[in-house]
Specification:
alpha/beta; Transcription Regulator spoIIAA; two-stranded parallel ribbon; 3 helices
Length: 102
């Protein structure tokens, strides 16, 4: 289960090593519930994330759409170079802020 930390308007979620079909529903629920409770900015901390599958990509797109629907913001931080290149090649980096270390 992804770990989370939260302030009144911001929340950070750490998905773990893999954003794959096995955790997508849990992560989707955390994101949706957070926005429903009034969180305006969610940061996905990708520190340690090694893999994203097609279900994980779908989750990122759905989370972005949900953030727009509620006037919120979705960020990704600490993405590895490999994940940053992947997000760039799929053009997902155009839709939300990607902050990588260094």
């Amino acid at each position: 289960m992804p770990k989370e930390s939260r302030s009144a308007a911001k929340k950070t979620i750490k998905p773990g090593k893999k954003i794959t079909a096995s955790i997508v529903e849990s992560l989707r629920s955390q994101i949706q519930t957070s926005f429903n409770l009034g969180v305006k900015e969610i940061t996905l901390d990708f520190n340690g994330v090694e893999t994203i599958d097609s279900k994980g990509l779908g989750l990122l797109i759905a989370a972005y759409n949900t953030s727009n629907d509620v006037g919120g913001k979705l960020k990704i931080k600490n993405a590895s170079e490999k994940i940053c290149k992947f997000l760039n090649s799929t053009h997902l980096d155009k839709y939300f802020e990607v902050v990588s270390p260094g």
